[in-house]
Amino acid sequence: MNAIGDIELDAPALIAALGARARAAARRLAGVSSADKARGLDAMARAIRDAAPAILAANAIDMANGRIAGLTPALLDRLELTPARVAATADGVAAIASLDDPVGAMIDTVRRPNGLALSRVRVPIGVIGIVYESRPNVTADAAALCLGAGNAVILRGGSEAIASNRAIHAALAAGLEQAGLPADAVQLVGTTDRAAVGAMLAGEGLIDMIVPRGGKGLVARVQAEARVPVLAHLDGINHVYVDGSADPAMAAAIAVNAKMRRTGICGAMETLLIDRAFADPAPILRALASAGCALRGDAATQAIDPAVAPASDADWDTEYLDAIASVAIVDGVAGALAHIARHGSHHTDAIVASDEAVADCFLAQVDSAIVLWNASTQFADGGEFGLGAEIGIATGRLHARGPVALEGLTTYKWIGRGTGQVRP
Fold first, then answer.
1. Which residues of the chain, if any, have pLDDT below 70?
2. Which of 140, 316, 319, 411 is deepest in the core (most CB within 10 A)?
């Protein structure tokens, strides 16, 4: 049980109040021009830069509490804000202002034989709830993307980042007010009580879509309990397959970058698959080990390098989010495809190959939101796709897939223009 001051938390009432204000703000945003939204985003970015000292001081509190609580290095990396990361967060918000506004865009049109003109037009979803963990930059990214697509947003971050999230939200609200936009367009659930999450998930009529960003436990809970539509992914169990035709130097560079650039992000490689026909896998294994990666492999991998620890059955289904990778030797692209089909999470998978036919086979048959040829899985990022900040990587097959940015936060409606038609 949690409390706000001396008053016991009434989570449904709290979310109902936030939802009512968000709905009113969403109605106002529906009439806001693209230029006004861009000015609001620019003002939010400036407010983050101006509030950088306060944001960093709040983050220092969260980091200290996180160390006391025993957060893993991967989680601490996700939580930590530096001056460069705060600046990058502000830049990401500003970048969204320069993107094309999807709202009002015509998807297609048709004129019926009776003269009735029909068109599909992009419109905001309405009120979006974001439930997330660890990364305080999500507070700014999600707010900016939702605003850019004309939506109001209710943010509920993890308890480990509560001070950082409050500081960032205060800056965002100040920026909105400076731009003459409703501050209620971006609201933060100020309590860490888990009941607030439950109230959001039950918020049918208050919230139009929930987006969870966090660990498997969080996402599974949201998907199991939500009474509103969910846009989500579970694990990022990403693979890099090194084909027998791969350039050895390229294969080593991509494997190391895919795993070790940032081990705690959802685009990090978790499993390396090497074609049995690849001439010399040992340098790739050594390059990973030299970069500080602990390797767990099958019997064939251990025969190549006895320093590799044995992999358990669970390793192939584990999102480490740490400097650990599992390695398997497979029989060509067919073996890689079979392994990914059994153990992949439909997030991001890559092939390193010189043989274009093999690469085309991999690209066509891997059922993931992002499939790459001769590139690191760490490119699984909305910014790298030219979409600006992303709200997450969606791995489902409906509504949106891959990096979800402005367009993924809209829906559409049909508009008909007639000249007096009546149906016989």
1. 1-7
2. 140
